[in-house]
Design brief:
- It is built from 25 helices and eight strands.
- The protein is mostly helical and about 600 residues long.
- It has three domains: about 50 residues, no CATH class; about 220 residues, Alpha-Beta Plaits, CATH 3.30.70.20; about 170 residues, no CATH class.
- It has a four-stranded parallel sheet with strand order 6-5-7-8, sandwiched between helices.
- Bound molecules: iron/sulfur cluster (SF4) (2 copies).
- The site of one iron/sulfur cluster (SF4) has 13 residues, from helix 10.
Length: about 600
Amino acid sequence: MRKQASSLPIMLKQLPEGDGRLSDIHRFWEQTGSFYLEGKGSGNLADPYMATGLMPVATGFYRDMTQIRFEYPEFKPENCTACGNCYSVCPDSAIPGLVNSISDVFNSAIMTIERGGNPTRFLRREVRTVEKKLRGLIDQNGEAANVNQLIDHAVLETLAESPLEGTEKQSLEREFSRLLATIGDFRFAITKPYYSTREKKQAGSGGLFSITINPYTCKGCMECIKVCDDQALVAVPQTESAVERMRKEWKFWLELPTTAPEFSRIDDLDEKVGALETLLLDKHNYHSMMSGDGACLGCGEKTSIHLFTATVTALLQPRVKSHLEKIDNLINQLETKVRMTLANNINLGDTAAFRAAIDGNKEHDLTLGILSHSLEADGPTQPLNQQWLKDITKLLDALRNLKWRYTEGQTKQGRAEMGIINATGCTSVWASTFPFNPYPFPWANHLFQDAPSMAMGIFEGHMAKMADGFKAIRKAELIIADKYDPAEHDSILTYFNWKAFSDEEWRLCPPVVAVGGDGAMYDIGFQNLSRALMSGMPIKVLVLDTQVYSNTGGQACTSGFIGQVSDTGSVWQGVERQDRNPQGNEPDRNGASHFICAAKLHFQYDPHD
Ligand code: SF4
Ligand code: SF4
């Protein structure tokens, strides 16, 4: 039986229902996830997910870490400089930074009010006056401004000056109080990079910066507080009212639009906001890892992987957007070509036959089919090239299907931006603790050492699919340009594979990434990694080099320090860490990473070779 919508976790409500097959996160929630959240995971009947060890993507969405936190980071906007350290370091994607224009904030609040069943009559017009007043007040108060208080002032002033009277004024008052209640305690900072500097360049262009805690994924590790040099985050004991407030603020964060591209173009490096910090301001990039998984508090591996996935997502998003425009364009041009070919079949030169056909059908509606039929009755017309029509409609289907895969697919969430093959180790354990999956893209795990080999196999299959899409595009381009010659092009297209991809096509390929620790890549799995390097196959390899063989108790590993004290190593036993290197220098490393990088450069596949 379908569960009531009210019992769905808030984050799950954000996702569209899929097609009900195994990849549908809503089906997984009903069949498996909800039982775990109710503490009945072991009493659950066997289902296809448990039987096959499959999980849909991003099931970490279900998790709620409230019970494992004793303290939480509280945002002090008056101290914030928007440096980005906190949201870059957080391992649990739990503290996103966001920049919104004032009008976006007000519009989001109004839409929330209206969706809650309270239509507004005056609010949309009146918030324009509030915004003007608010900007004036911010200018007076500078970067230490308390934006929430200033919004209150601006609303009160606007209300006092409103020419409305009687019941209309009461309605406006009610609408304003709903606006203030919806924004609530959600805190905004006035910062140099996103407000003051922009306002100096162009009045009205400054945006409000916010830092919001996701109470469902924050584990209370306090790493964000450690890296905040401006005392804009403080550790506060968690109370019931604090949890309620965090949930309300998070709900409002979900309503706010993502950071607009104009706020992501920071061109002054002295503002100390770099590319990484700005790309993370995009909600989609930030949620390239959903978290809600079983990693330890403050897990550095997760931070590293999150920065990697966010960067890949940020690179692919604009490429896919322009590729979709290209596909749309090709579909339109092909459709026009088919229409023109069909219309050309009608002989417009014989106008007398044309008029006679129209007159012969004046008793009923005239369709193109009837007209064509009548003209044919008067004499033979040009026969249509049936094979050409069949081919071109098949091609149109392929292009439409390609667009569907990019924008919807079985999950209704479009095509994934990458895929990970994870070596067994810490990263595979926390990323696959049933039923919580932190990744919003395909992920698989095999034996400790196999990730690069498995990535090579998946890469071949994945690139065959990519090649199918590119073949359809290449063929459409040739047909539109009237250059398609089956004798010349069919065999090229039949054997087309990733080695023949153009640079533009390469840039559209979601990377296949082998992820593992130094033990999995440099020790036990080295033969697999060396084979992948030798093959020249352009898979990506991400090594989370912890400089120790962690999963079996901490032996020395190939990428560790020379003379390193490891749990099972004998050198330096009993010597304090700070005394291990008498010269005070960084101890010598075994240098596996340097060797691998050098080897990779040497064997780099060049598609133009
Ligand atoms: S306390 Fe830890 S998990 Fe929570 S927001 Fe800060 S860094 Fe992220
Ligand atoms: S680290 Fe501190 S100053 Fe920097 S963005 Fe986060 S809260 Fe603001």
